[in-house]
Structure formats: structure tokens, C-alpha cells
Hints:
The protein has eleven helices and eleven strands. By secondary structure, it is α/β, with parallel strands linked by helices.
Amino acid sequence: xxxxxxxxxxxxxxxxxxxxxxxxxxxxxxxxxxxxxxxxxxxxxxxxxxxxxxxxxxxxxxxxxxxxxxxxxxxxxxxxxxxxxxxxxxxxxxxxxxxxxxxxxxxxxxxxxxxxxxxxxxxxxxxxxxxxxxxxxxxxxxxxxxxxxxxxxxxxxxxxxxxxxxxxxxxxxxxxxxxxxxxxxxxxxxxxxxxxxxxxxxxxxxxxxxxxxxxxxxxxxxxxxxxxxxxxxxxxxxxxxxxxxxxxxxxxxxxxxxxxxxxxxxxxxxxxxxxxxxxxxxxxxxxxxxxxxxxxxxxxxxxxxxxxxxxxxxxxxxxxxxxxxxx
Length: 327
């Protein structure tokens, strides 16, 4: 099985100069004055927006071309990603997405695209830990309290996620399968409404990637972090154990974000985009934005990112099959 922790640790440790040719030696990017569309397949306001939009602005400045961001949420990201799959592979349509619409959801639902054939990897952006958090409706103090209550009183705890088939949903199913605890799944269409309802304690538990709004709610005491995910503890939550530490290795999933293009996009265009994206990820502004939200930068070649997508799909498929997860 693909060792995600090893990839992430290696990715984060790679030194940028060894991977990225000097921009001064690069040739002029693909010609034309057309605007480059970047589809973020989620409603506005999530972690992909908070870091991604800033990164895209910097990439546009370096390329010297207009780039617009379109939020097209729905069905766990598959609506927006599907639009990219149907677009012409000419370098003018990209997706900035979590990889789950390509590596996870195809194992759970019938889609209007072929995840193995319709995309080509451009560049990873970052991985983001997932926080398991209690709202003020949850009276327990720890992750273990949550499990104990859900076992003692099945259905008494509502667990909100960003949608059916999301990473948070898979985590919930894994926890239920391992412990026998029973939660009520509350799937949302995105994170924006989830955090709004969390503030008014409309459910007990939620999962989400850390970003500005969630971090503010944690500071204000409206959310309490019970567990995190990742190869190591989240830098901004050093006293909170990961799900792997708590005995839930298969639920210790992070959200990986990156750029993909329609299949058939020219290799030289992909290479140029990869070069510029990686260089801008390394800038102080983007590094600071990632640190502030507990996200970890990733760098790889397009071929390595393609390989990651395929290996991640296989390993996620095995987890889903093993846990008998269905929608």
C-alpha cells in the first residue's frame, strides 16, 4: 500500500532549488491572451480559497496572463472537477482541488468522468490536516469522551462533514467501524455553512481543515480540537494527538490539494505551470499563509504528482473496501 506519510515527509523536505529550473531560463509560456480559468470545485470560503487564491494571483503575475478563479461546488467537488474533465486540454482550464474527487469518490459513486483517464497532474500545492472538533453542543472534553458517548447512547451525537464521500465522511465511517459507536452523519455542501452552524451549536462534532474562520472559532472557544490527522501533530495543535496515535491509522487522513488539467494538455505547458506554481509556493507570503493554517507545502514534478494520484486512489479504494463503506 502506498505510504502517504513517507511521500509527505519526503515532499516537505525537498529543497526547491534542486527541483525547479531558474525562471530566467524558461521560455515564454504558451502564446495567446486568453484568460486561464482555475476552477475550485467547492463553495467559497474554504481552505482551498484561503491559500489558493493568493497563490493563483502570484502565478498570474509571473506568467503575465489573466487568471480567474471560479468556485463551482457540489457533490463533494465532482461537479467542478467534471467540468475540467470535459474542457479542452489547451492549458487554459485548470482545477485547484482536493484530490478526493479523483482518488476517493470514484470508489463510491458513478461519475460523469473517468478519474484514471480524464486528468493529468500539474502540481501539488499542500496537504492539510483534518481537525475533529467539538462544538459547544458537545459536553465531553476529549475524543475518547466522544466515542464513549456515541457507544453508550447510539445516535446521540451529530457529526458534520463537508459532504457525502468527503474525507471527513470516510473518517467517521472508519471510527464507527472500529469502535461500534454510532453517530448521525450531517453532510453539508461545503465548509462555509458548516462553520456557521457550528457557531450556533447545531451539531456536536465536525471535521474540517484549519483555516482562518475555524482557527478564530477555536480561539474564541466555539470549537475544541479533539484530534488531528497527519504524519505528525499539527504545529498549531501540538498537545492534540493524531488519529494514528489514538489507534485509528486508517482514519488518519489528510486533505491533499493540487492543480490538475484536462488530459491531453501539452507537456510543455504542464511543465511551465509546475515550475511557476512551485516557485510561488516557496515565496514567503504563501509559506506564511500555509503556516498560519497548519498546511504543509508540497513540491513534485508532474510525473510524480500523477503517480501520487494513482497510488492514492488504490490505497483509498482498499480502505473503502476493507471498511465496507458505501453511500
